[in-house]
């Protein structure tokens, strides 16, 4: 499936999104202008990490599926420790004649236990925390 300019594949689709959930705020823009050229941008504000983090281009793992787009970034990674990843489930949003559309979705915070220990602990290597999000879709402001 060819990748479109936004996740709807049309100029009528939203390509700027704002999300709010329990201790989590995010902004995703399908195309922003950077020194490296036009790229996607995801800004994550999660208080456990301190300052908001900005991810662009290849820092964002994007998978398009029938359920929408899955956007994944690594929030924290430490050798021989745990990795904290965030996956956002982004539905396709058609704005129609409106300038803004509200919707609900989820983010999944995944803690991945490292495999660099001589004897891995028993149990799952990944644990999940699902964060319900309220989203707003808008046209790209850039």
Give an overview of the whole structure.
There is one protein chain. This protein is mostly beta strands. It has a 9-stranded antiparallel β-sheet, with no helix packed on it. The chain has strands spanning 16-21, 24-34, 37-45, 53-56, 61-65, 68-77, 82-90, 101-113, 126-138. The model is unreliable at 1-11 (pLDDT under 50). The radius of gyration is 16 Å and the shape is globular. It has one domain (16-138): Beta Barrel (Lipocalin).
- Please tell me how large the radius of gyration is: 16 Å
Shape assignment: globular
Q: How many strand units?
A: 9
Note the total helix count.
Answer: 0
Estimate the strand proportion.
over 45%
Largest sheet: 9 strands, antiparallel
Question: How does the helix and strand content classify structurally?
Answer: mainly beta
Distance between the termini: 26 Å
Please indicate the count of domains.
Answer: 1
Secondary-structure element order, as H and E? EEEEEEEEE
User: What helical percentage do the residues reach?
Assistant: under 10%
Unreliable residue runs? 1-11
Please give the CATH class.
Mainly Beta
Mean pLDDT: 82
Strand order of the largest sheet: 4-3-2-1-9-8-7-6-5
